[in-house]
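TICKET: design request
STATUS: open
ATTACHED STRUCTURE:
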């Protein structure tokens, strides 16, 4: 047995199910080892950002790490943007990064780079393997580092010569235990005391506080006087619909969020870090609430839902009634708008489905409408690095085979990782991609308006519009092996969604706005 085979056996023993891969020459021994192990499925992608985004989506849904395999520093660098999002989502991921043979790298070959520095930008744990005998233990350590209550990214750098060396002995690897979450009862009592003393509290809930147990507890707390609850602006995974209490997202723009939070005496952080504006704007505070107004209930990685439930019990909060589920559909003949798309999609969701949202055009309207849909899960872009939506949906579909996945995607951001269509088609997954085709970077145009630009001249349009030439989404999808159609009104969208769901396979819908 060589080092690569030992590492693969260790991955299987550690519970790794998928390896999202874009390998090169320095990973050839590992590719050969994967070919001989049926319990660890390799999934090829055409771009490393698809691999890392898919591992993120898998981890959010499955709750345990997948593995990525990338080629040297430049290959890993191609995946960093979606690893940034995964880091912000606290998703457990194990990266295996091939490196030059130890005896070759000192010659400074063309692809040599500081992989350790690159990995360190997004990883909580980085190690370079030093012996073939230790490869199994190294992989096992990476899994343990990644799979903890507050998940993180672990990156193992793997020289090519160690992969090929024979292993003289192997250790018995202990089972990697599922992480256990806890909460601090003193923090629960501190929040309860603040409410008993008449303080008005606004909660920002994230992490697993947006699970069923967390939402039901939040619904109880919402019945109390002087209490308001928001979900964090970009949740990693939020359960929605099916009669569950509706925690809408904290507004994105800082002045709106600051105004909302200012109505309350204290801001309770339940599974979220300190709330900070996405960008800095002159004259607007970066902190959405002053630090002396923050009241911690649970940290990221804690048993957030348990803390919310304990608080509801301590305050004897009443039970909440099931939320209404009726959705008013727009007229079939009316042209598509972001709000009508949100309503039509929400009404079409099957129970148990997953929605990956990327883009401002339709994301917020859908999230609002989704409170009345069948019970489903929503993933958002936690770190703001563009190109997450399609790969995360792809990984989620592999995490739960057969579960319908919907990617609600803006057209500009879809192009960053459009190669995902090929991987979805190759695996024949039930993923429906909905492209909001307004042929512009709408968020940039909104920011220009906020900056004071009232008229867009040729240069501003050249940097924010995507219509010269317009992307032919049907042709592009079909070129990757995904059936596609274009819709222009609500009735056409409804029928296209019905067709896509019935197909039980990949389908792309271009929504012309």
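STATUS: resolved
RESOLUTION: sequence designed for all positions
ATTACHED SEQUENCE:
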């Amino acid at each position: 047995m060589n080092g690569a085979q030992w590492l693969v056996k260790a991955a299987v023993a550690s519970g790794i199910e998928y390896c999202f891969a874009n390998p090169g020459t320095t990973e050839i021994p590992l590719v050969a080892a994967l070919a001989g192990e049926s319990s660890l499925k390799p999934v090829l992608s055409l771009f490393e950002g698809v691999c890392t985004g898919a591992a993120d989506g898998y981890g959010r849904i499955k709750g345990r790490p997948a593995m990525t395999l990338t080629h040297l520093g430049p290959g890993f660098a191609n995946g960093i943007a979606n690893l940034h999002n995964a880091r912000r989502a606290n998703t457990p991921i194990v990266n295996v990064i091939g490196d030059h043979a130890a005896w070759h790298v000192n010659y400074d070959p063309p692809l040599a780079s500081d992989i350790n520095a690159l990995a360190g930008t997004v990883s909580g744990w980085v190690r370079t393997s030093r012996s073939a005998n230790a490869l199994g233990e190294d992989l096992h350590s990476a899994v343990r580092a990644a799979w903890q209550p507050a998940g993180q990214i672990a990156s193992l750098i793997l020289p090519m010569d160690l992969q090929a060396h024979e292993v003289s002995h192997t250790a018995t690897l202990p089972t990697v235990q599922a992480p256990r979450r806890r909460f601090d009862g003193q923090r629960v009592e501190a929040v309860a005391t603040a409410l008993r003393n008449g303080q008005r509290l606004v909660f920002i809930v994230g992490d697993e506080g947006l699970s069923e147990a967390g939402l039901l507890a939040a619904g109880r707390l919402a019945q109390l006087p002087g209490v308001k609850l928001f979900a964090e602006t970009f949740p990693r995974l939020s359960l929605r619909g099916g009669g569950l209490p509706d925690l809408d997202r904290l507004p994105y723009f800082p002045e709106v969020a600051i105004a909302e939070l200012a109505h309350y005496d204290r801001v309770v952080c339940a599974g979220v870090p300190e709330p900070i504006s996405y960008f800095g704007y002159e004259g607007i505070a970066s902190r959405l609430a002053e630090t002396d107004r923050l009241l911690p209930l649970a940290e990221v990685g804690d048993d957030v839902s348990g803390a919310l439930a304990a608080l509801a019990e301590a305050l004897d909060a009443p039970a909440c009634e099931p939320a209404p589920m009726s959705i008013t559909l727009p007229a079939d003949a009316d042209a598509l708008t972001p709000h009508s798309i949100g309503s039509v999609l929400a009404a079409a969701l099957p129970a148990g489905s997953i929605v990956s949202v990327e883009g401002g055009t339709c994301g917020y309207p859908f999230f609002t409408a989704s409170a009345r849909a069948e019970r489903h899960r929503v993933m958002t872009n936690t770190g703001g690095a563009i190109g997450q939506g399609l790969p995360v949906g792809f990984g989620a579909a592999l995490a739960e085979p057969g579960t319908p996945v919907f990617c609600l995607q803006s057209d500009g951001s879809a192009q960053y990782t459009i190669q995902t269509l090929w991987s979805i088609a190759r695996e024949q997954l039930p993923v429906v991609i909905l492209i909001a085709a307004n042929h512009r970077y709408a968020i940039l145009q909104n920011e220009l308006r906020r900056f004071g630009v009232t008229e867009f001249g040729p240069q501003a349009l050249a940097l924010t519009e995507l219509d010269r030439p317009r992307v032919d989404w049907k042709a592009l999808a079909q070129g990757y092996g995904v059936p596609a159609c274009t819709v222009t009104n609500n009735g056409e969208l409804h029928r296209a969604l019905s067709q896509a769901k019935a197909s039980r396979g990949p389908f792309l819908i271009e929504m012309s706005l």
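CLOSING REMARK: DSSP finds 22 helices and 17 strands in the chain. The CA atoms of residues 87 and 285 lie 25 Å apart.
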